[in-house]
Amino acid sequence: xxxxxxxxxxxxxxxxxxxxxxxxxxxxxxxxxxxxxxxxxxxxxxxxxxxxxxxxxxxxxxxxxxxxxxxxxxxxxxxxxxxxxxxxxxxxxxxxxxxxxxxxxxxxxxxxxxxxxxxxxxxxxxxxxxxxxxxxxxxxxxxxxxxxxxxxxxxxxxxxxxxxxxxxxxxxxxxxxx
Amino acid sequence: xxxxxxxxxxxxxxxxxxxxxxxxxxxxxxxxxxxxxxxxxxxxxxxxxxxxxxxxxxxxxxxxxxxxxxxxxxxxxxxxxxxxxxxxxxxxxxxxxxxxxxxxxxxxxxxxxxxxxxxxxxxxxxxxxxxxxxxxxxxxxxxxxxxxxxxxxxxxxxxxxxxxxxxxxxxxxxxxxxxxxxxxxxxxxxxxxxxxxxxxxxxxxxxxxxxxxxxxxxxxxxxxxxxxxxxxxxxxxxxxxxxxxxxxxxxxxxxxxxxxxxxxxxxxxxxxxxxxxxxxxxx
Lengths: 178, 283
Fold this sequence. Notes:
The complex is a heterodimer of chains A (178) and B (283).
Chain A: E1 2-4, H1 5-9, E2 13-14, H2 17-32, E3 39-43, E4 49-50, H3 52-67, E5 74-78, H4 82-94, E6 99-102, E7 108-111, H5 115-127, E8 129-130, H6 132-139, H7 143-155, E9 159-164, E10 172-177
Parallel strand pairs in A: 1-3, 2-4, 3-5, 5-6
Antiparallel strand pairs in A: 6-7, 8-10, 9-10
Helix pairs in contact in A: 2-3, 3-4, 6-7
Chain B: E1 3-5, E2 8-9, H1 11-14, E3 29-33, E4 37-39, H2 42-52, E5 60-64, H3 68-76, H4 79-85, E6 88-89, E7 105-111, H5 114-129, H6 135-155, E8 161-168, E9 177-184, H7 189-193, H8 205-212, H9 227-238, E10 241-255, E11 264-282
Helix pairs in contact in B: 5-6, 6-9
C-alpha cells in the first residue's frame, strides 16, 4: 500500500503541525487495515520541502505510533530528496526514533538509526530470511543481543517475523527485512 | 480625536508600541495619521494590518494617507484594502495597472486557517527564492515562513494573523535583501511560554523571548519547541541577516549564524499584545 504525500494533497511543500496531524490520522487508519507481511510505504516523490515541525508531527509521531502497533507489517518512506530526508532525520533524532527509506534506485537504508542497527539492517537485507540465532552468528554477538536488535527493527516496521516449526520441533521465528 | 501618528522610515520596526498608547483604550474615534510616513517595511505592513482589526464596533477609525509614492505603495501592498475591511475610513488612492511582482513581494495577506498557511507555503518560498535553482535556499525560506506561520497559527490564539514580504534590489539603499514579516495580536510568546510549569516563574518578558529561541523550549507539554531554533540554524546556513522579535514586554534582535553573545534581548517600554516578527536576509 503506497501513500503518495504530494499526490494525495496536491502540494509539494508542507509547513504546519495541524495539517500533519490530519494526514497522520488518515495514515493511521490505513495502517490498521494492513494484513500480515504487507507494507505501508509513504512516498515522498514530488515533495520539495517540509518544516521540521511538520516532519515531527507527521513522520516522527507516525513512527512512534508504529512502535506500539502490529510488528508483522512493514513501514517505510520512499523517493525522498536529500534535503527532505535531512529534515526528517532531525525530527526523528529528537525523539530517538528511526525509519527505513527506499531511494528511487531501490537502495534501502535506515534514517536516524544508531550505527549498530544500520549495520544489522543491511545484514538482514543481505540474509533475506533468518532466525535470531543465524543473525547472532553472523554478527558474532550473543543471542539476547541479536534478539534485542531484531525487536527494535521489528518495532520500527523494517523487519517482520513469522512463526515456523523447526524440524526438531518446538517454536522458532523467522525474520525478513522490508 | 486621539491620533496614532506614524512618521519617517519603518516606524513600527523602530518603535512597535506606537500603535498601543494607553489613551487608545477608551477612545471612540481614532485617527491613524500616516501623512508623514516616508518608508514602510513588511513588519510595518503586517503589524498595521494585525493591529487594525482591533477597531471595535462602537469605534470609528479614520486614516490620513501620506502623499505620492508611499500611498501608492500602501495601496499596492493591499494594506488599504485590509484597513477598509476592518472598518477604517480610508481615502481612495488612484493607481495604474499592477505589475506581476510575485518574485519581489508578497502583499499583506491574512491567514486564518492551516489550509491557507499550507497553500501559501506551497508557492511563496519558491517565488521568493527567485530563479536560482538552490534547493538549500528554498528549504531555508520554507522553514522561515512555515515555522513562523505555524507558531502564529498554533499559539497566538487569535485568527487571522498577517504576513508580508519585500525584496529590495539595493538601488536606493545599496543593500540587496529580502524581508519577511509575520504579525498577530494573540497571546504573545512570553505568556504562552508560561503555560509550561517549567517556565511559569520567568518574570521578565525579554528573558522569556530569549528562552523561546533555545532548542526544546516550549509552552506546551509536547517534546517540541525547536521552531525559532531551526529557523535560525537553517537560515544561518544560507544567508546572513537578522531575526527581529517583539512580543509582550520583550524584544530580540538575533543575527543569523552569529555566536550567541551577539544576540540582543531588551525589555519594551510598554506592553505589545501579540507578536511581531521580521526576518531580514542579505542577498
